[in-house]
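>> received
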Amino acid sequence: MRAVIGSHEKQRIRGRYLILSAVLIPLVCKNDELQVLLTERTMGVGLHKGEVCLPGGAMHDDDESLLVTALREVWEETGIRPEDVEIIGEIDDNVVQSTGYVITPFVGFVPYPYPFVASASEINDIFFVPLRVLMDPREFRHQERVIGQYYYSGPVCDYNGHVIWGATGRILKQLVALLSSQDSVTS
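>> returned
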């Protein structure tokens, strides 16, 4: 996994009106298998109320880089200290058409168990999805359906009462595609 993600030549997207943002795809070894940490946003946040997301957010003026943005946001949202994340690489940027954000996803390992602390104002839940579930095309597949108030066509995974879709679904689908192409699920 380190070799595949570390050697990936990411596609960058920049545009005059796009808002720079970054997320972390936190990987943990839980129950002897790799799992992805995801969050469910509260209903009190400005955008993506109640949705499943990777920890992250918009770049601030004082952030030195998008990596700094991702690590700052993951600390604020989940309590994961930046020094506890082992970054192994980046995958392709992703645009959220409805909001104008361009998301830079970083992939990193986080120790487990860990004293996660969900931000009360932003995060309703922190949960984990085994990577094997996301790599199973019967579980994580292209769908057309209504989710909340949105008609959506793209990757969707229903997992333990959570619906993974939208930019989070697209980002995780790309991660799965990269790993599947190399049969590299072991770290």
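>> The CA atoms of residues 43 and 180 lie 35 Å apart.
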